[in-house]
Amino acid sequence: MPTPVGAESSDEVVQRAWRGEATRQPLLLAGIAAVVVYVVGDLVSGVLYDGYSFRDQAISELSAYGSPVRPLAVTWIALHGLLVLAFCVGIRWSAGGSGALRWTAGFLFAASVVTAPTHPFFPMSSRGMETGFNDTMHIVTTMAFGLLVFGAVTASAVALRGWFRFYAIASLVVVVVSAGLTGPLMSDIANNAPTPRLGVLERVNAYTTFAWMVVLALVLLRRPVSRRVPEPVEPSRQQPSR
C-alpha cells in the first residue's frame, strides 16, 4: 500500500528518532562535562592562587578583580556556562509532553544567561580593594541565579517521580541551608574580615547543584526518544455518487 502524500513511512520515523537520539545524548552529556570543567577549574585555579584558602574563601574570589588567576577563572567559568546551555537544550529535547521538565530547562537556561556577564563584567573586588558597582551587580546576578536554579530543581522534582523527586527535594534543602549560612559571611569580604568556612559552605551549595545536574543527565539518558511507528493511514474512501 503506498504511503499517503505528506505522511512518513515507518522507516523514516525510525530514522528520525535515531537521529534525534544521536543529537540528544551529547547535549545531555554536556551537563556532566560542565560539572567536570567547573570542578577541575576550581581546583586548578585555587592551587595556582598563592595563599588561596579553599576552606575560607569564596569561589568568586578566583575571578575577582585583583586575582592573579582571574583570566584562567573567567575562561573555565565561561566554558562551563556554554556547556550548561547545551545541557538545557538536551533537557528540553527530552521533555516530550512534560511541561514541568520544559520548565526545568527554561529555568536553568535563564540562570545561565543571567550569570553569563557576572564574572567577565561584574566580578567582585578582591579583599582590601574598594568596592563599587561591580560588586553590587555581582550580588544581584548571583541572587537571581540562585532563585532560577531553585526553580529548575523544583520543576525537576515535579517532573520526575520516585526516588529522583526525593533526591531533588533533599538537594533543595541543602542548597537553601548552605546559602543561608553563606550570606552573612559574604558581607565580611568587603570589610576584609575573616570568613571562616565560607569556601566550604559555598562549595557545598554549588556542588550540590552540580550533583543534581549529573543525576538529572543520567536519568534523562535512560529515557530514549520515542521510536513508536505510527499505524498505517487508510486511504480515504469516496462515497459513491447517487
Features:
single chain; 242 residues; mainly alpha; 7 helices; 68% helix; 0% strand
Concise structural overview:
With 242 residues, the protein is mainly alpha-helical. It has 7 helices and no strands. α1 (10-48) runs antiparallel to α7 and α6 packs antiparallel against α7 (198-221).
Q: Could you outline the blueprint of secondary structure elements for this entry?
A:
Elements: H1 10-48, H2 70-95, H3 99-115, H4 118-121, H5 133-159, H6 163-190, H7 198-221
Fold and architecture overview:
The chain is mainly α and about 240 residues long. The model is unreliable at about 10-20 and about 225-240 (pLDDT under 50). It has one domain (about 20-220). It contains 7 helices and no strands. The radius of gyration is 23 Å and the shape is globular.
Give average pLDDT, whole number. Answer: 88
- Helix fraction, binned, reads 55-70%
Which stretches of 5+ consecutive residues score pLDDT under 50?
10-18, 226-242
Gyration radius over CA:
23 Å
Strand share of the residues?
under 5%
The dominant shape is: globular
Q: Which structural class should the secondary elements be placed in?
A: mainly alpha
What pattern of helices and strands is seen along the backbone? HHHHHHH
The total count of strands amounts to: 0
> Total domains, how many?
1
Specify the biggest β-sheet.
none
Through-space gap between termini: 28 Å
Instruction: Provide a count of the helices.
Output: 7
